[in-house]
Amino acid sequence: MAPYFLLPLVAALVCLACGVAIWLRDSDSTANRCAAALLAGATHWGVCEALWTLAPDAASAEWRVRASAPGWIAVGPLCLHLFLAQETRSWRGLRRALPFLYALAAGALLLVWTEPWLGVHWMFAGVEPVAWGFAYRVGPAYALWYFGTLLCVTIGITAPFWDAQRQLSPAETSQRRWLGTGIGVPLVLGSVTDGLLPIFGVDVPRLGVASFAVFGATVTWSTHRFGFSVLTPSSFAREILESLPEGVALATPDGRVRVANASLADLLGVPVGDVRERLLADLLPGVHLAADLAIGAQECELATVHGPVPVTLSTAPLRDKQGALLGLVLVVRDLRELAALRSQLLTSARLAAVGELAAGIAHEINNPLAYIGANLRALREQWSTLASAEKGSAVELFDEGASMLDDALEGVDRAAAIVRDVRAFSHVGSDALERFDPNLVLDRVLRVAAPHLRHRVRVVRRFGDVGAIEGARREIEQVFLNLVVNAAQAIEGAGELRVATQLNGREIEIRIADDGRGIAPENLERIFDPFFTTKPAGEGTGLGLSISHEIVRRHGGRIQVTSVPGRGTEFTLTLPAALP
């Protein structure tokens, strides 16, 4: 028995392995499906060729030759479809011709299978024994099929390169060359031994299936070599994932990390392999995630080996084609640099707001200092008089001195309180989350702003029993101070500032209103834009309301404004109440 049958059989096994690998890489890709279909056909073709080589007689061999037709009859349309599926912009007419070409291939297959009953020999004229088994004889229709297939394959190889040479990366261009080689080998070698030479009656060992094995091996090797496949754009997914600066992970529905990219591992400070199977509850403590719900960007902390790291977290459910839940996709962005910049900006805004009040603060401190100095000078004179004073006069002097000391101590306390409140606002403190009473925060803000309001602005407080807010207290203080300062500046001369709080369901409403000059309607939509200000040049940065809007948004709240020019403005802050 000639060992030739091993060649098509081994080639068929190689085609099968490569076809499965290509199919599994991306079964949704048209190009991948075409490549897998070519290799599946070659597998069928190779098995049939091994069987007809081992056939006991010519009749059995001929039927096995005809049985192999599904493996090679559509090679031309499939090769053309393979290349045209790679986002080629040109040759659109060829795409429209593909259904016609597939129909011709189906007609040729029907002819191959019905010839024995029709009594014609258009495709095959039978088989005859050769040294390695049996060789087939072809008819005139076979030559038409051969040259049609040759034309389709040639156009398929040529078409994408007209576009690719100008728009693809060097790696893609290099892989296309390898792919062209993988197709070119069957075109030259296989078509000559299995197509051209049989037309002229020349018998040589058939190498068509082996050449398709070369094609499959070339595609598989180039995908491994370059890390992606030009047959399908989705094969870039892994490279895209690894190149992202954000951490990306896929978690199972029960909250375990299935896959993570290198950026997330670097952020956690561990190798990529150590991220897998970690619980999301351990990585994101305090964050409640539902596997079937998407969330927008929310700020939280990621537990790393170096300690908590501020991040923004976005999630989306991943589902299969039937809608079944596969897991949860997480995108994590490092906020350490942004947090540092935000802290600097917030501190600058605090200092700018306090600077707006500087003149009033200086005046407020100067008053108690003035009468402290006057009282102390008077005490010094009285102390000198005590030595020579009569007993009754000394008692009067002591009583008057005690009163002066009380006034001086009161002045010192007032100055110390002003300095303490101002220092509290300008100090760069922690922005850690805490529970606090917004009424107490508003009281502190109004005390700091009092020097700027006194004698011209009457403050009306209407504080309700609203409970607590959970958030960054210093940031909320900054929002309140920005709004109070803006209200004071909007009041020209005497006026009224109304500050009210109330509980509305699970939300706390804070209203800060003035009876100042108001805001023009055309400016209302822009007041929260960075650097937009209605103040004269040099008197405002245009960042106060923008910062306030961002702080309120990050706390899960909202800020609204209503204004009537000439009658005043009201800002309404709505923040979620802390759960009991």
Descriptive account of the structure:
- This protein has 580 residues and is of the alpha+beta class.
- It is 57% helix and 18% strand.
- The chain has 20 helices and 14 strands.
- The strands form four sheets. Strands 4-3-7-6-5 form a five-stranded antiparallel sheet. A five-stranded mixed sheet has the order 9-11-12-14-13.
- A hairpin with a 2-residue loop joins strand 1 (124-130) and strand 2.
Low-pLDDT stretches: none
Largest sheet: 5 strands, antiparallel
CATH class type of the largest domain:
Alpha Beta
Number of DSSP helices? 20
Record field, number of beta strands: 14
Tally the structural domains.
3
List the keywords.
580 residues, Beta-Lactamase, alpha+beta, Rhopdopsin 7-helix transmembrane proteins, 20 helices, five-stranded antiparallel sheet, Heat Shock Protein 90, single chain, 3 domains
